[in-house]
Design a protein that fits this description.
By secondary structure, the protein is an alpha/beta fold. The protein contains eleven helices and twelve strands.
């Protein structure tokens, strides 16, 4: 059985290290483990691959993979794989949401703290050698506490549920919107259905976007939805940039309809130098680093090894994607 690893990205960390294939060969000596460092000549390796570890596969490439039965994406988002031919096939898709969830949740909490304590403004004053105590207090929004405030989660999957646990431990009130509101979470006080998103937004001091990107959620946060947020509320996106209409967000921030935003993801990455988001004082930008950790590939390895063992034993896999829903 052939397992094909093909991952290539301009950011070094997103590329599988050489030791990953070596350790898998040691763990599974009967398997043929192929590791490609680029997509060059990928078509030559696809016809006899039964398992592919990749986050990108084009329809014409998928058509060549006659023996393919399982695709594992090291990403949490799999929208790029949800083309009709793959969705209609019997090929299983799994993702690495369990790898990224806790790490991204930590980042979301860090962003909430940074916004609440006005850390970006403090750093800006430090760079100018200004003792800005008075400015930090008098220029709204004022520094505030997380304890006792309300965080609203848009999505309660691997990321949202981990944010909920951490936020509740900090004494925050947690509310959330999810597609299936009947599924409860012990860290969440109130779970709304998708149709009640506006109601949830009117309660939240911090809105954390952690939903998957689908046809229904693209530009979910448009001018109409942003207008339903509290004027003093902060918007935090650690999911996918396309969930937010960036032009609408810029307008809402400029008009004071939203107090500020912390954004780790953008519709187009890298974020264009001419984007007005760069120069807005109420915006904190992190360059898609929410999932970055020195332990990333060790965490990936543990999940891949576990799922390969399950696959060979005919057991259910972890992180299975519902291809009809796209996540």
């Amino acid at each position: 059985m052939k397992v094909l690893i093909v991952l290539h990205h301009r950011f070094e960390l997103w590329n599988a290290p050489g030791w990953l294939a070596e350790r898998l060969r040691e763990d599974f000596p009967k398997l043929q483990i192929e590791h490609l460092c680029s997509y060059e000549n990928l078509e030559d390796y696809l016809p006899d691959a039964e398992v592919a570890i990749t986050w990108s596969l084009r329809p014409q490439q998928f058509a060549l993979a006659h023996r393919l039965r399982w695709i594992h994406s090291p990403a949490a988002a799999v929208h790029q794989l949800m083309f009709p031919e793959l969705v209609a096939s019997n090929v299983m898709v799994t993702n690495a949401r369990s790898v990224h969830g806790p790490v991204v949740a930590e980042h979301a909490i860090a962003l909430m703290f940074a916004l609440a304590k006005k850390i970006p403004a403090t750093v800006h004053l430090q760079q100018k050698h200004v003792w800005g105590q008075e400015q930090l207090w008098t220029n709204p929004p004022r520094p505030r506490e997380l304890q006792g405030s309300t965080v609203g989660l848009v999505g309660l999957g691997s990321i949202g549920s981990e944010v909920a646990k951490r936020a509740a431990a900090l004494g925050m009130r947690v509310v959330a919107v999810r597609e299936n509101p009947e599924k409860q979470d012990r860290s969440v006080e109130n779970i709304f259905g998708a149709a009640q998103l506006g109601q949830m937004l009117r309660e939240a001091d911090y809105v954390v976007v952690a939903a998957p990107l689908t046809k229904e959620t693209r530009h979910l946060f448009d001018s109409t939805l942003l207008a339903q947020m509290k004027p003093h509320a902060y918007l935090i996106n650690v999911s996918r940039g396309a969930l937010i209409d960036e032009n609408a967000l810029v307008a809402a921030l400029a008009q004071g309809k939203v107090a500020g935003a912390a954004l780790d993801v953008f519709e187009r990455e890298p974020l264009a130098p001419e984007s007005p988001l760069w120069d807005m004082e109420q915006v904190l930008i992190t360059p898609h680093t929410a999932a970055v950790t020195e332990k990333l590939w060790e965490r990936h390895y543990q999940l891949i090894r576990e799922n390969l063992q399950r696959y060979l034993a005919g057991q259910p896999l972890l992180g299975v994607v519902d291809k009809q829903r796209g996540y």
